[in-house]
Amino acid sequence: MPGDSRRVRGPEESQSPLLYAVPAQLPVGRTGRGAGEPRAVFVRAGLLSHAAGSAYIEAGGTKVLCAVSGPREWGGAGGERRGRLLCDLRWAPFSRAGAWSSSAASSRQAGLLLQESLEASLRLERYPRAELAVWALVLEDRGSALPAAVSCASLALADAGVEMYDLVVGAGLSRGAEGEELRLDPDDSEEEAGATMYLSLLPALNQVSGLLCSGEWEGDTSVAAVRMCMEGCQRLYPVLQQSLVKATKRKIPAPQPQSG
Amino acid sequence: MVLMAPARCCVPGERLCSLEDCAPGYGTYCKHGYVFSSLSGYVVKRSDNGMMPVISVVRDTDSHLLPDVGATVTCKVMSINPRFAKVQIMYVGATVLKNTFRGTIRKEDIRATEKDKVEVYKSFRPGDVVVAKVISLGDAQSNYLLTTAENELGVVVAHSEAGATMVPISWCEMQCPKTHIKEPRKVARVQPEFLNVTT
Protein backbone atom coordinates (compact mmCIF):
# COMPACT_ATOMS: atom_id res chain seq x y z
CA MET A 1 0.00 0.00 0.00
CA PRO A 2 1.44 3.36 -0.91
CA GLY A 3 2.07 5.64 2.02
CA ASP A 4 0.75 9.12 2.53
CA SER A 5 3.06 11.33 0.51
CA ARG A 6 2.14 14.42 2.51
CA ARG A 7 3.25 12.95 5.78
CA VAL A 8 6.89 13.07 6.85
CA ARG A 9 7.75 9.46 7.49
CA GLY A 10 10.95 9.95 9.39
CA PRO A 11 11.77 8.32 12.71
CA GLU A 12 9.93 9.78 15.67
CA GLU A 13 13.09 10.98 17.30
CA SER A 14 15.83 12.60 15.29
CA GLN A 15 18.89 14.73 15.81
CA SER A 16 20.87 16.95 13.55
CA PRO A 17 23.92 15.15 12.12
CA LEU A 18 25.91 18.26 12.91
CA LEU A 19 25.80 17.26 16.59
CA TYR A 20 27.95 14.25 15.81
CA ALA A 21 30.09 15.74 13.09
CA VAL A 22 33.60 16.75 13.95
CA PRO A 23 33.69 20.51 13.43
CA ALA A 24 35.66 20.97 10.25
CA GLN A 25 38.50 23.42 10.40
CA LEU A 26 37.46 25.56 7.50
CA PRO A 27 39.70 28.49 6.78
CA VAL A 28 37.71 31.56 7.74
CA GLY A 29 38.32 34.87 6.06
CA ARG A 30 40.87 35.79 3.47
CA THR A 31 43.84 33.56 4.14
CA GLY A 32 46.82 34.53 2.10
CA ARG A 33 45.15 36.39 -0.70
CA GLY A 34 44.84 40.06 -1.42
CA ALA A 35 41.65 42.06 -1.80
CA GLY A 36 41.68 41.89 -5.56
CA GLU A 37 42.70 38.25 -5.78
CA PRO A 38 40.15 35.52 -6.59
CA ARG A 39 40.31 32.02 -5.15
CA ALA A 40 41.95 29.23 -7.10
CA VAL A 41 39.50 27.58 -9.50
CA PHE A 42 39.03 24.16 -11.02
CA VAL A 43 37.01 24.06 -14.23
CA ARG A 44 35.88 21.14 -16.32
CA ALA A 45 33.50 21.01 -19.27
CA GLY A 46 31.66 18.06 -20.77
CA LEU A 47 31.69 15.69 -17.79
CA LEU A 48 28.09 14.45 -17.87
CA SER A 49 27.44 11.89 -20.59
CA HIS A 50 23.65 12.17 -20.62
CA ALA A 51 23.40 15.93 -21.06
CA ALA A 52 23.91 17.74 -24.36
CA GLY A 53 26.47 19.88 -22.57
CA SER A 54 27.72 20.18 -19.02
CA ALA A 55 30.30 21.93 -16.87
CA TYR A 56 31.61 21.94 -13.32
CA ILE A 57 33.31 24.80 -11.51
CA GLU A 58 34.98 24.75 -8.14
CA ALA A 59 36.25 27.96 -6.60
CA GLY A 60 37.58 27.53 -3.08
CA GLY A 61 34.79 25.60 -1.35
CA THR A 62 32.08 26.64 -3.81
CA LYS A 63 31.07 23.87 -6.17
CA VAL A 64 28.60 24.30 -9.01
CA LEU A 65 27.43 21.72 -11.53
CA CYS A 66 25.55 22.64 -14.67
CA ALA A 67 23.77 20.69 -17.42
CA VAL A 68 22.15 21.78 -20.69
CA SER A 69 19.52 20.01 -22.74
CA GLY A 70 17.98 20.92 -26.04
CA PRO A 71 17.15 22.46 -28.39
CA ARG A 72 13.80 20.74 -28.09
CA GLU A 73 10.28 21.51 -29.17
CA TRP A 74 8.50 24.52 -27.72
CA GLY A 75 5.09 25.84 -28.80
CA GLY A 76 6.17 29.46 -29.09
CA ALA A 77 3.72 31.76 -27.34
CA GLY A 78 2.46 34.87 -29.12
CA GLY A 79 4.19 34.28 -32.43
CA GLU A 80 7.65 34.42 -30.87
CA ARG A 81 10.22 33.76 -33.58
CA ARG A 82 13.18 33.41 -31.26
CA GLY A 83 14.06 30.44 -29.18
CA ARG A 84 13.59 30.42 -25.45
CA LEU A 85 16.07 29.89 -22.66
CA LEU A 86 14.90 28.15 -19.51
CA CYS A 87 17.07 28.54 -16.44
CA ASP A 88 16.82 26.65 -13.21
CA LEU A 89 19.26 27.51 -10.43
CA ARG A 90 19.05 25.52 -7.21
CA TRP A 91 20.96 25.21 -4.01
CA ALA A 92 21.40 21.66 -2.76
CA PRO A 93 19.90 21.14 0.73
CA PHE A 94 23.37 20.39 2.07
CA SER A 95 25.10 23.25 0.28
CA ARG A 96 25.44 25.57 3.25
CA ALA A 97 26.69 24.93 6.75
CA GLY A 98 23.97 24.84 9.38
CA ALA A 99 20.25 24.34 8.96
CA TRP A 100 18.85 24.60 5.48
CA SER A 101 16.56 27.47 4.70
CA SER A 102 15.08 27.54 1.24
CA SER A 103 15.26 31.23 0.56
CA ALA A 104 12.88 31.12 -2.37
CA ALA A 105 12.94 34.88 -2.96
CA SER A 106 16.72 35.21 -3.24
CA SER A 107 16.88 31.99 -5.27
CA ARG A 108 14.38 33.40 -7.74
CA GLN A 109 16.36 36.63 -8.01
CA ALA A 110 19.54 34.64 -8.60
CA GLY A 111 17.77 32.62 -11.31
CA LEU A 112 16.67 35.84 -13.00
CA LEU A 113 20.23 37.18 -13.05
CA LEU A 114 21.42 33.89 -14.52
CA GLN A 115 18.75 34.04 -17.23
CA GLU A 116 19.43 37.69 -18.02
CA SER A 117 23.19 37.18 -18.19
CA LEU A 118 22.97 34.16 -20.49
CA GLU A 119 20.22 35.41 -22.80
CA ALA A 120 22.35 38.35 -23.93
CA SER A 121 25.12 36.01 -25.04
CA LEU A 122 23.03 33.49 -26.99
CA ARG A 123 21.95 33.70 -30.61
CA LEU A 124 18.39 32.66 -29.88
CA GLU A 125 17.17 33.78 -33.32
CA ARG A 126 18.98 30.71 -34.68
CA TYR A 127 16.63 28.43 -32.74
CA PRO A 128 13.11 29.37 -33.84
CA ARG A 129 10.32 27.58 -31.95
CA ALA A 130 12.80 25.70 -29.81
CA GLU A 131 13.76 25.73 -26.20
CA LEU A 132 17.08 25.41 -24.44
CA ALA A 133 17.11 24.33 -20.81
CA VAL A 134 19.88 25.00 -18.31
CA TRP A 135 20.01 23.37 -14.90
CA ALA A 136 22.50 24.69 -12.40
CA LEU A 137 22.98 23.03 -9.03
CA VAL A 138 25.07 24.56 -6.27
CA LEU A 139 26.55 21.56 -4.51
CA GLU A 140 28.39 23.58 -1.93
CA ASP A 141 28.17 27.28 -1.25
CA ARG A 142 31.17 28.93 0.36
CA GLY A 143 30.50 32.32 -1.14
CA SER A 144 30.15 33.68 -4.69
CA ALA A 145 27.99 30.78 -5.85
CA LEU A 146 25.95 32.93 -8.20
CA PRO A 147 28.82 34.22 -10.37
CA ALA A 148 30.26 30.70 -10.43
CA ALA A 149 26.87 29.43 -11.65
CA VAL A 150 26.83 32.05 -14.42
CA SER A 151 30.28 31.04 -15.69
CA CYS A 152 29.42 27.36 -15.34
CA ALA A 153 26.12 27.64 -17.22
CA SER A 154 27.72 29.54 -20.07
CA LEU A 155 30.46 26.95 -20.33
CA ALA A 156 27.88 24.16 -20.41
CA LEU A 157 25.97 25.93 -23.20
CA ALA A 158 29.16 26.31 -25.22
CA ASP A 159 29.95 22.65 -24.60
CA ALA A 160 26.51 21.74 -25.95
CA GLY A 161 27.35 23.55 -29.19
CA VAL A 162 24.77 26.29 -28.78
CA GLU A 163 25.52 29.30 -30.95
CA MET A 164 26.52 32.27 -28.85
CA TYR A 165 28.29 35.60 -29.23
CA ASP A 166 30.65 35.03 -26.35
CA LEU A 167 31.14 33.11 -23.14
CA VAL A 168 29.68 34.78 -20.07
CA VAL A 169 31.95 35.10 -17.06
CA GLY A 170 30.65 36.04 -13.63
CA ALA A 171 32.43 37.75 -10.77
CA GLY A 172 31.36 38.66 -7.25
CA LEU A 173 32.54 41.35 -4.91
CA SER A 174 31.75 42.39 -1.37
CA ARG A 175 32.30 45.43 0.76
CA GLY A 176 32.25 45.18 4.52
CA ALA A 177 31.07 47.89 6.89
CA GLU A 178 31.47 51.58 6.11
CA GLY A 179 34.83 52.58 4.65
CA GLU A 180 36.16 49.06 4.21
CA GLU A 181 37.93 48.03 1.06
CA LEU A 182 36.38 46.05 -1.77
CA ARG A 183 37.07 42.35 -1.79
CA LEU A 184 36.85 40.32 -4.98
CA ASP A 185 35.40 36.79 -4.94
CA PRO A 186 34.13 36.89 -1.33
CA ASP A 187 33.65 33.73 0.72
CA ASP A 188 30.46 33.21 2.70
CA SER A 189 31.52 35.11 5.82
CA GLU A 190 32.52 38.13 3.75
CA GLU A 191 29.36 37.89 1.68
CA GLU A 192 27.16 38.18 4.75
CA ALA A 193 29.16 41.06 6.18
CA GLY A 194 27.83 43.89 4.02
CA ALA A 195 27.09 45.02 0.51
CA THR A 196 27.63 42.67 -2.43
CA MET A 197 27.79 43.03 -6.18
CA TYR A 198 27.53 40.32 -8.83
CA LEU A 199 28.44 41.10 -12.41
CA SER A 200 28.41 39.06 -15.64
CA LEU A 201 30.61 40.06 -18.52
CA LEU A 202 31.05 39.06 -22.15
CA PRO A 203 34.85 39.44 -22.10
CA ALA A 204 35.64 39.40 -25.82
CA LEU A 205 33.04 42.04 -26.58
CA ASN A 206 33.59 43.82 -23.24
CA GLN A 207 29.85 44.04 -22.56
CA VAL A 208 28.21 43.72 -19.17
CA SER A 209 25.19 41.42 -19.47
CA GLY A 210 24.01 41.30 -15.88
CA LEU A 211 24.43 43.19 -12.63
CA LEU A 212 22.94 42.48 -9.22
CA CYS A 213 23.71 44.68 -6.23
CA SER A 214 22.59 44.46 -2.65
CA GLY A 215 23.33 46.77 0.23
CA GLU A 216 24.37 50.38 0.03
CA TRP A 217 26.46 51.51 -2.92
CA GLU A 218 27.62 55.02 -3.71
CA GLY A 219 28.87 56.62 -6.90
CA ASP A 220 32.63 56.30 -6.70
CA THR A 221 32.81 52.98 -4.91
CA SER A 222 30.32 51.35 -7.24
CA VAL A 223 32.31 52.45 -10.30
CA ALA A 224 35.46 51.05 -8.72
CA ALA A 225 33.55 47.88 -7.82
CA VAL A 226 32.29 47.37 -11.38
CA ARG A 227 35.80 47.84 -12.69
CA MET A 228 37.20 45.37 -10.18
CA CYS A 229 34.54 42.80 -11.11
CA MET A 230 35.37 43.20 -14.79
CA GLU A 231 39.03 42.61 -14.05
CA GLY A 232 38.08 39.50 -12.10
CA CYS A 233 36.07 38.26 -15.10
CA GLN A 234 38.97 38.86 -17.46
CA ARG A 235 41.21 36.81 -15.19
CA LEU A 236 38.85 33.84 -15.21
CA TYR A 237 38.17 33.98 -18.96
CA PRO A 238 41.33 32.17 -20.20
CA VAL A 239 40.70 29.35 -17.73
CA LEU A 240 37.22 28.78 -19.16
CA GLN A 241 38.54 28.97 -22.71
CA GLN A 242 41.22 26.39 -22.00
CA SER A 243 38.85 23.88 -20.45
CA LEU A 244 36.40 24.36 -23.31
CA VAL A 245 39.09 23.71 -25.91
CA LYS A 246 40.08 20.59 -24.00
CA ALA A 247 36.49 19.37 -23.85
CA THR A 248 35.92 20.10 -27.54
CA LYS A 249 39.02 18.17 -28.55
CA ARG A 250 37.93 15.24 -26.43
CA LYS A 251 34.35 15.26 -27.72
CA ILE A 252 34.82 15.98 -31.39
CA PRO A 253 37.46 14.46 -33.64
CA ALA A 254 39.33 16.94 -35.80
CA PRO A 255 37.95 17.19 -39.34
CA GLN A 256 39.99 15.25 -41.87
CA PRO A 257 41.90 17.48 -44.25
CA GLN A 258 40.30 16.99 -47.61
CA SER A 259 41.19 18.19 -51.03
CA GLY A 260 39.46 18.21 -54.32
CA MET B 1 38.41 23.55 -53.18
CA VAL B 2 41.33 23.59 -50.78
CA LEU B 3 41.26 22.91 -47.07
CA MET B 4 44.08 24.27 -45.02
CA ALA B 5 45.51 21.99 -42.35
CA PRO B 6 45.89 21.61 -39.40
CA ALA B 7 42.49 22.49 -37.98
CA ARG B 8 42.54 24.96 -35.12
CA CYS B 9 40.20 24.63 -32.15
CA CYS B 10 38.25 27.74 -31.20
CA VAL B 11 35.74 28.88 -28.59
CA PRO B 12 32.76 31.28 -28.83
CA GLY B 13 33.81 34.92 -28.90
CA GLU B 14 37.21 34.21 -30.40
CA ARG B 15 38.25 36.62 -33.15
CA LEU B 16 39.07 34.58 -36.23
CA CYS B 17 40.07 37.10 -38.90
CA SER B 18 39.25 40.39 -40.56
CA LEU B 19 36.16 40.66 -42.72
CA GLU B 20 38.43 41.72 -45.59
CA ASP B 21 40.30 38.40 -45.57
CA CYS B 22 37.45 35.93 -45.25
CA ALA B 23 33.71 35.73 -45.66
CA PRO B 24 31.81 34.50 -42.61
CA GLY B 25 30.35 30.99 -42.87
CA TYR B 26 28.53 28.63 -40.55
CA GLY B 27 29.14 29.09 -36.83
CA THR B 28 30.48 32.62 -37.12
CA TYR B 29 29.23 36.19 -36.84
CA CYS B 30 30.62 39.61 -37.79
CA LYS B 31 31.16 42.60 -35.55
CA HIS B 32 33.26 45.75 -36.00
CA GLY B 33 34.66 44.44 -39.30
CA TYR B 34 35.92 41.16 -37.88
CA VAL B 35 34.69 37.59 -38.01
CA PHE B 36 34.10 35.99 -34.60
CA SER B 37 33.38 32.38 -33.73
CA SER B 38 29.98 31.57 -32.25
CA LEU B 39 30.61 27.87 -31.62
CA SER B 40 33.24 25.77 -29.96
CA GLY B 41 34.69 23.63 -32.68
CA TYR B 42 37.31 23.54 -35.40
CA VAL B 43 38.10 26.43 -37.72
CA VAL B 44 37.79 25.46 -41.38
CA LYS B 45 38.79 27.73 -44.24
CA ARG B 46 37.59 26.83 -47.69
CA SER B 47 38.33 28.74 -50.82
CA ASP B 48 36.69 28.10 -54.14
CA ASN B 49 39.05 29.05 -56.95
CA GLY B 50 39.63 32.77 -57.04
CA MET B 51 36.81 33.53 -54.63
CA MET B 52 37.21 34.95 -51.16
CA PRO B 53 37.76 32.09 -48.72
CA VAL B 54 34.83 31.24 -46.44
CA ILE B 55 35.71 30.71 -42.80
CA SER B 56 33.42 28.52 -40.72
CA VAL B 57 33.42 26.62 -37.45
CA VAL B 58 32.44 22.96 -37.58
CA ARG B 59 31.41 20.36 -35.05
CA ASP B 60 31.07 16.82 -36.36
CA THR B 61 27.55 16.24 -35.10
CA ASP B 62 24.93 18.48 -36.57
CA SER B 63 22.90 17.93 -33.44
CA HIS B 64 21.23 21.30 -33.40
CA LEU B 65 19.61 21.09 -36.78
CA LEU B 66 16.01 22.34 -36.70
CA PRO B 67 13.35 21.97 -39.39
CA ASP B 68 13.33 25.12 -41.50
CA VAL B 69 11.01 26.43 -44.21
CA GLY B 70 11.64 24.55 -47.46
CA ALA B 71 13.42 21.62 -45.79
CA THR B 72 12.49 18.07 -46.77
CA VAL B 73 11.61 16.11 -43.65
CA THR B 74 10.75 12.50 -42.90
CA CYS B 75 7.96 12.05 -40.42
CA LYS B 76 5.62 9.50 -38.94
CA VAL B 77 1.84 9.92 -38.90
CA MET B 78 0.59 9.88 -35.33
CA SER B 79 -3.12 10.58 -35.77
CA ILE B 80 -5.57 11.64 -38.47
CA ASN B 81 -8.88 13.45 -38.51
CA PRO B 82 -11.04 14.76 -41.39
CA ARG B 83 -9.19 18.10 -41.52
CA PHE B 84 -5.52 17.26 -40.99
CA ALA B 85 -2.96 14.63 -40.05
CA LYS B 86 -0.68 15.05 -37.07
CA VAL B 87 2.89 13.87 -37.60
CA GLN B 88 6.12 13.65 -35.73
CA ILE B 89 9.18 14.94 -37.58
CA MET B 90 12.08 12.52 -37.17
CA TYR B 91 14.58 13.45 -39.89
CA VAL B 92 15.58 16.69 -41.57
CA GLY B 93 17.10 15.72 -44.90
CA ALA B 94 19.31 12.78 -43.97
CA THR B 95 20.02 13.91 -40.39
CA VAL B 96 18.20 12.27 -37.53
CA LEU B 97 16.78 14.65 -34.93
CA LYS B 98 17.55 14.03 -31.28
CA ASN B 99 14.19 15.40 -30.19
CA THR B 100 11.19 14.90 -32.43
CA PHE B 101 9.05 17.87 -33.44
CA ARG B 102 5.32 17.83 -34.01
CA GLY B 103 3.92 18.91 -37.35
CA THR B 104 0.59 19.13 -39.14
CA ILE B 105 -0.35 18.24 -42.70
CA ARG B 106 -3.62 20.01 -43.53
CA LYS B 107 -6.11 18.45 -45.93
CA GLU B 108 -5.55 21.10 -48.62
CA ASP B 109 -1.77 20.54 -48.52
CA ILE B 110 -1.90 16.81 -49.20
CA ARG B 111 -1.83 16.98 -52.99
CA ALA B 112 -1.55 19.62 -55.68
CA THR B 113 -4.55 18.73 -57.87
CA GLU B 114 -8.23 18.31 -57.03
CA LYS B 115 -7.64 19.68 -53.58
CA ASP B 116 -11.34 19.76 -52.80
CA LYS B 117 -11.72 16.00 -53.33
CA VAL B 118 -8.88 15.04 -51.00
CA GLU B 119 -9.76 12.95 -48.00
CA VAL B 120 -7.25 12.54 -45.22
CA TYR B 121 -8.09 8.92 -44.41
CA LYS B 122 -7.58 7.98 -48.07
CA SER B 123 -4.12 9.55 -48.02
CA PHE B 124 -2.52 8.70 -44.70
CA ARG B 125 -2.99 6.24 -41.86
CA PRO B 126 -1.40 6.37 -38.43
CA GLY B 127 2.02 4.69 -38.52
CA ASP B 128 2.86 5.65 -42.10
CA VAL B 129 6.25 7.12 -42.81
CA VAL B 130 5.86 10.24 -44.92
CA VAL B 131 8.30 12.47 -46.76
CA ALA B 132 7.08 16.06 -46.64
CA LYS B 133 8.27 19.62 -47.04
CA VAL B 134 8.04 22.37 -44.42
CA ILE B 135 5.94 25.31 -45.62
CA SER B 136 5.72 27.29 -42.39
CA LEU B 137 6.97 27.26 -38.84
CA GLY B 138 3.37 27.89 -37.77
CA ASP B 139 1.92 30.56 -35.54
CA ALA B 140 1.13 30.73 -31.86
CA GLN B 141 -1.55 28.04 -31.98
CA SER B 142 -0.23 25.59 -34.53
CA ASN B 143 3.09 23.83 -34.94
CA TYR B 144 5.12 23.11 -38.09
CA LEU B 145 2.96 23.08 -41.23
CA LEU B 146 4.00 20.51 -43.82
CA THR B 147 2.93 19.74 -47.38
CA THR B 148 3.01 16.66 -49.58
CA ALA B 149 1.71 18.42 -52.71
CA GLU B 150 4.49 17.17 -54.99
CA ASN B 151 5.06 13.92 -56.85
CA GLU B 152 8.17 13.21 -54.81
CA LEU B 153 6.39 13.73 -51.50
CA GLY B 154 3.98 11.45 -49.70
CA VAL B 155 3.90 8.02 -48.08
CA VAL B 156 7.08 5.97 -48.47
CA VAL B 157 6.54 3.18 -45.95
CA ALA B 158 3.13 1.87 -44.93
CA HIS B 159 1.90 -1.31 -43.28
CA SER B 160 -1.31 -3.10 -44.15
CA GLU B 161 -3.81 -4.46 -41.64
CA ALA B 162 -2.09 -7.83 -41.96
CA GLY B 163 1.12 -6.18 -40.77
CA ALA B 164 3.10 -6.53 -43.98
CA THR B 165 4.97 -3.64 -45.61
CA MET B 166 2.88 -2.61 -48.58
CA VAL B 167 4.08 -2.19 -52.13
CA PRO B 168 3.15 0.94 -54.09
CA ILE B 169 1.23 0.14 -57.29
CA SER B 170 0.21 3.64 -58.39
CA TRP B 171 0.46 7.22 -57.11
CA CYS B 172 -2.68 6.74 -55.06
CA GLU B 173 -2.69 3.04 -54.13
CA MET B 174 -0.60 0.53 -52.23
CA GLN B 175 -1.05 -3.22 -52.09
CA CYS B 176 -0.42 -5.72 -49.33
CA PRO B 177 1.82 -8.61 -50.56
CA LYS B 178 0.11 -11.07 -48.17
CA THR B 179 -3.59 -10.44 -48.66
CA HIS B 180 -3.40 -8.50 -51.95
CA ILE B 181 -5.80 -5.93 -50.53
CA LYS B 182 -5.34 -2.48 -52.06
CA GLU B 183 -5.34 0.51 -49.76
CA PRO B 184 -5.51 4.17 -50.84
CA ARG B 185 -2.50 6.34 -49.99
CA LYS B 186 -0.84 9.51 -51.28
CA VAL B 187 2.22 7.62 -52.50
CA ALA B 188 5.57 9.36 -53.02
CA ARG B 189 7.64 8.69 -56.09
CA VAL B 190 10.89 8.28 -54.21
CA GLN B 191 13.86 9.80 -56.00
CA PRO B 192 16.85 7.52 -56.57
CA GLU B 193 19.20 9.79 -54.61
CA PHE B 194 16.89 9.49 -51.62
CA LEU B 195 16.96 5.69 -51.82
CA ASN B 196 20.71 5.77 -51.28
CA VAL B 197 20.23 7.84 -48.18
CA THR B 198 17.51 5.75 -46.60
CA THR B 199 19.05 2.32 -47.14
State the CATH superfamily name of the largest domain in chain B. Answer: Nucleic acid-binding proteins
Strand content of chain A: 25-35%
Total of DSSP H or I helical runs spanning 4+ residues of chain B: 1
Poorly predicted runs of 5 or more residues of chain B: none
Overall domain count of chain A: 1
Q: What is the average of the pLDDT values of chain B? A: 84
C-alpha-based Rg of chain B, rounded: 22 Å
Kindly name the structural category of chain B. mainly beta
The pLDDT mean of chain A sits at: 83
The DSSP helix count of chain A reads: 4
Query: What is the assembly state of the chains in this entry?
Result: heterodimer
CATH architecture of chain A: 2-Layer Sandwich
**Percent of residues of chain A in helical segments?**
25-40%
Assigned CATH class of chain A: Alpha Beta
Largest sheet of chain B: 5 strands, mixed
Calculate the terminal CA-CA distance of chain B, rounded to whole Å.
29 Å
The strand line-up of the biggest sheet of chain A is 1-2-3-5-4
Query: What's the domain count of chain B?
Result: 2
Query: CATH superfamily assignment of chain A?
Result: GHMP Kinase, N-terminal domain
Terminal CA distance of chain A: 70 Å
Relevant terms:
heterodimer; A: 260 residues; alpha+beta; Ribosomal Protein S5, domain 2; five-stranded mixed beta sheet; four-stranded antiparallel beta sheet; 4 helices; 27% helix; globular; B: 199 residues; mainly beta; OB fold (Dihydrolipoamide Acetyltransferase, E2P); five-stranded mixed beta barrel; 1 helix; elongated; cytoplasm (chain B)
